[in-house]
Specification:
The longest helix has 13 residues. The chain has a seven-stranded mixed beta sheet, sandwiched between helices. 35% of the residues lie in helices and 24% in strands. Helix 5 links the parallel strand 4 and strand 5. The protein is globular, with a radius of gyration of 18 Å. It is an alpha/beta fold. The chain starts with 5 loop residues before the first helix and ends with a helix. The chain has nine helices and nine strands.
Length: 233
Amino acid sequence: MFQWNEGMVDYMDRAARHTQYYQTLAAHIGKYLTDNDRVCDAGCGLGYLSLALTQYAGQVEAIDTCEEALNILRANCVDEENVTPICADIHTWNTAPYDAMVFCYFGRTQEIIEIARRLCRGRLYIIKGRSHRHLFSKDEECTWRETADMAARWLEEQRIAYEQIPLDLDLGQPFLSRADAEQFAAIYGGSEDAAWISSQLGADPLGQYEWYLPIAKPVTLFCLENKNFRIGE
């Protein structure tokens, strides 16, 4: 299970606030939401997508098993009345069915469908990366992660209809200094990746930080109707 530490939280907070990554994802999902919808962001992590979804939904329940991560969300949502952080395991969480559920980089599609069949009465949104490549390494691949192509193949094998929206997003990392970038490399990459990360640094496009690491995140947003993902129950 992924565990956050203080350094990771700090870098993620900077990147989330500096880019439009989560706002863009939420805007695409929000096209289908109403201000009466109760939405679940399953495995929400630090909750940046949960916060972005609040402007489109009536209520967002942000669920994660990591209390420390949820504390970051609680600190960031002081003025947000329609988001509720919940420390729970979505696999065993029991509640009235949601109008929509969002799973961003969450496990396998089969696992997601099983959860949604139990807890979602409306639309289901699954966000998957389109690449195996580790974001902070020149060559390393995350072979354990399910890609968008793998998810699509499984859905088609199960004859589950879906709509897919490819998105080319940026979740670039701003740095205060070269030393700051080296610390980032020590946390996220191997020792051999530090030089590569340093070579990728450029000027911050917003001019707020000394250095910027552009990080491309090609993702696919899968949209499924309840009537379709209940096939095969």
